[in-house]
Specification:
9 helices, about 45% helix, alpha/beta
């Protein structure tokens, strides 16, 4: 039973806050470097996978993206605004607040907890669309990237297929970048996950960072 739950959770990628920290959702943000002179920023909105739950802030994948940016000589500051246990509804609720710190690029990683809880796919689609619309209304010139997530297979083929399509369809509809499944090469492999079988360890976070960087490199 526990093994099956862990396998399902791995596919979705996040865990409910009550499973992680006694019912209190935790926010874990990487400490960004000072904003570069021209003020260009990349803001990551996400779940505990983005927050880097269980890792030092400097080992979260957005912090590792900052390393790649610096090595490439690009003039961007990465800002990590991941929140543990957050659903797409929660992300939708706080996107207006997040837009108070303007960015040039927004990376949206959401839906993992929707999938784990079997929440409605139509609602998730509406929440992500609302986030994109809000960003466009406030910062119309910003680039937006949507991170592909997957639903647990135990919810059935119809649900997982509908869940998967949300991301590609919204990316095409809104002409935003689509980053392939965040946990490619990490999901289900004990060598790259923490003891919970859900969150990447330091080695896994580096693979996740490479997954994201391959999509961002040359596009920012």
């Amino acid at each position: 039973m526990l093994a099956a739950l862990a396998a399902a959770a791995c596919t979705g990628g996040d865990a409910a806050p009550e499973q992680q920290n006694g019912g209190a959702a935790a926010t874990v943000s990487a400490s960004p470097a000072p904003t570069r002179a021209d003020g260009r920023r990349i803001l990551f909105v996400g779940t505990s996978l983005t927050a880097g739950l269980g890792l030092p802030p400097e080992e979260s994948y957005p912090a590792l993206i900052q390393e790649r940016i610096d090595a490439a000589g690009l003039n961007y500051t990465v800002v990590n605004r991941g929140v543990s246990g957050e659903t797409s509804a929660g992300a939708r609720e706080r996107i207006g607040w997040l837009l108070r710190e303007r960015a040039d690029v927004y990376v949206i990683e959401t839906g993992a907890n929707d999938g784990l809880r079997g929440l409605g796919v139509a609602d998730m689609r509406a929440n992500i669309q609302a986030m994109i619309d809000t960003i466009r209304s406030v910062v119309p010139e910003a680039r937006i990237f949507l991170v592909q997530m997957e639903a647990p297979p135990n919810l059935g083929a119809d649900y997982t297929t509908a869940f998967r399509r949300v991301y590609s369809e919204l990316a095409v509809k809104n002409e935003v970048g689509l980053i392939p499944f965040l946990l490619n090469g990490v999901v289900g492999d004990p060598a790259y996950n923490q003891r919970d079988g859900i969150h990447p360890n330091a080695a896994g976070a580096r693979i996740v960072a490479e997954n994201v960087w391959r999509a961002l490199e040359g596009e920012i």
